[in-house]
Structure formats: C-alpha cells, structure tokens
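Supplementary Methods. Inverse-folding protocol.

Structures were first reduced to a discrete structure-token string of length 89. This string, shown here, constituted the complete conditioning input.
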C-alpha cells in the first residue's frame, strides 16, 4: 500500500512551528476516511496544534489531501512444510 499527498505550503501557520536543535518542525495530523471524496481523496493532512492552542480556539489548517493506493502485485503465498520424521524427540 502506498499513501501519497500534497501540502499547500502557503497555508502553514508559522506561529505553531517548533524550533528544534536540528531544524524547524511542524506536527501534522493525517485523517483517513472510510470512503473517497468526490475527487478520489481518502483523507487530508492538517497542521496539528497543541492542546492549549486548540482550547484557545486555534484550529489546525487543512494543508492538503491524501490518496491511498493498493500495490498492484499480490503478496506471495508461502506454504508451510511439515516433516514428521524429525531425528530427535
């Protein structure tokens, strides 16, 4: 299975970015839905906000959509081989 998506970078709320030791980070929330929408999307990616921000009325911006693709090749079937004449007890 593959999941692809795109993010509209201009929608990122820079006030909730996290400055770290090795870079600047953004927490995201990926929401998968049971059915595809009218455009064939299986869900969306939103910018995640902290509990405190959420309680203060800050909402995570929806940044883009995602699609789930099933792999075209089926998984190989492995058969178990059982041997009854083992050389030990």
């Amino acid at each position: 299975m593959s999941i692809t998506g795109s993010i509209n970078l201009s929608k990122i709320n820079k006030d909730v970015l996290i400055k770290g030791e090795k870079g600047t980070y953004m927490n995201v929330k990926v929401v998968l839905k049971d059915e595809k929408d009218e455009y064939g999307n299986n869900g969306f990616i939103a910018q995640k906000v902290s509990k405190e921000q959420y309680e203060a009325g800050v909402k995570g911006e929806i940044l883009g959509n995602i699609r789930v693709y099933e792999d075209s090749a089926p998984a190989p079937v492995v058969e178990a081989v059982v041997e009854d004449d083992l050389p030990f007890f």
